[in-house]
Design brief:
Number of domains: 1
Distance between the termini: 13 Å
Structural class: mainly alpha
Oligomer: single chain
Number of strands: 2
Strand content: 5-15%
Number of helices: 5
Shape: elongated
Largest sheet: 2 strands, antiparallel
Helix content: 55-70%
Amino acid sequence: MLRLTQGIFGAADPEYLGDLASPTEVGLGAIGGFGDYFGALAADRRACPTDDLATVIANGEIDGCPIDDDAMLWYFIIV
């Protein structure tokens, strides 16, 4: 989780670039990693709700409609 966060907020830092060609690649890779992690977490919380914030986000609605996966991912990232 720390490495993914560093990839988003420190994508231009040479320490995180490694063999990748650009900060964009680092940032997009981190977003993809978050998507994998939080996608699995959301699926679990939809199937087996608990009393936590992940369940609230995974089952969130706006105007009576479930939030889409992209919006849900960003809610997880900013929290």
